[in-house]
Write a structure and sequence with these properties.
The strands form two sheets. The protein has a six-stranded mixed sheet with strand order 6-7-8-3-9-10, sandwiched between helices. 41% of the residues are buried. It contains nine helices and ten strands. The chain is globular, with a radius of gyration of 18 Å. With 260 residues, it is of the alpha/beta class. A hairpin with a 2-residue loop joins strand 4 and strand 5. The protein has a domain of 174 residues: P-loop containing nucleotide triphosphate hydrolases (Rossmann fold, 3-Layer(aba) Sandwich), CATH 3.40.50. It binds adenosine-5'-triphosphate and magnesium ion. The site of magnesium ion has 4 residues, from helix 1.
Length: 260
């Protein structure tokens, strides 16, 4: 295998005790490698550490153990401004609660354009605006969405705004934490098409937390199954879904009504 674009070694996170709560090990030391252009789905029950894992991969949380390298560069929440800048350029992120990441005082156009502006990718204002309109169209929003504000949109539309913001600067890696969960069936199908298109056109690497096996089947090559802060299974989607090795995975799949 060529060098992975994401390599985590012994990556773990324990949240210290805060009385009356005991310390929580959200992620036991885990290894994970993702090849460039690969699409990885992360599944597992609530509280199994999925969000913790993706936050650590992006240097958004401080690991208690282990290391993360992205394209051969060390990622660290205490990294220099320059390397954080580089990381923001490489990656696009959609969080579980997209509304929290949309500044209510900013127009949608500014919100979506911000990653380009912040990373200095497109210094030309007119070109930036054109790219914002293009990204809004890619997620199926009208061009006039740009002059409106987040509160004027529904939950699903806001999720699409967050997605437009995550792809606007053409990142090499897109990380999503349930990025499609608030979308209705038609919109979800459209976004899945768009993401598949990006994968083939740009060799985008995808890491996507999803409770929706349909999404994982549709979009991912590999699936990572988490349980109680551990990666309990990892393999090609079709293989894992067809013959899950772990008891836990079997139960998880059995509990999902959409699985054919
Ligand atoms: N900032 C924090 N401080 C203390 N404990 C935390 C913190 N963040 C997460 N945890 C704990 O770590 C564990 C894993 O949480 P995490 O958010 O990674 O789960 P998840 O798999 O994303 O769940 P969900 O599907 O509900 O989003 C949980 O027990 C959670 O309570
Ligand atoms: Mg989560």
């Amino acid at each position: 295998m060529t060098d992975p674009i994401i390599r985590a070694v012994g990556l773990g996170r324990t949240y210290p005790a805060r009385r009356p709560k005991r310390a929580t090990t959200a992620l036991h030391p885990a290894d994970l490698e993702v090849a460039a252009g690969e699409s990885v789905g992360i599944i597992g029950e609530s509280g199994s550490g999925k969000s913790t894992l993706v936050r650590l991969l992006l240097g958004l949380d401080r690991a208690s153990s282990g290391t993360v390298d992205i394209a051969g560069r060390r990622v660290d929440s205490r990294a220099s401004a320059r390397s954080l800048h580089w990381l923001r350029r490489m990656t696009g992120v959609v969080f579980q609660d997209p509304y929290a990441s949309l500044d209510p005082r900013m127009s949608v156009g500014r919100i979506v354009g911000e990653p380009m502006w912040a990373s200095g990718i497109e210094p030309d204002g007119a070109k930036r605006q054109a790219r914002v309109r293009e990204a809004l169209a890619q997620v199926g929003l009208d061009a006039d969405a740009g002059v409106r504000h987040p509160h004027e949109f529904s939950g699903g539309q806001r999720q699409r705004i967050a997605l437009a913001r995550a792809i606007v600067h053409r990142p090499e890696i897109l990380v999503g934490d349930e990025p499609l969960s608030a979308l209705d069936v038609t919109v979800r199908a459209r976004i899945l098409d768009m993401l598949r298109g990006l994968r083939t056109e740009t060799n985008l690497t995808l890491v996507m937390v999803s409770h929706d096996i349909g999404v994982v089947q549709n979009l991912c090559d590999t699936v990572v199954v988490m349980s109680e802060g551990r990666i309990v299974e990892r393999g090609p989607v079709a293989e894992v879904l067809r013959s899950p090795r772990e008891d836990f995975t079997r139960r998880l799949l059995a509990a999902i009504p959409t699985l054919p």
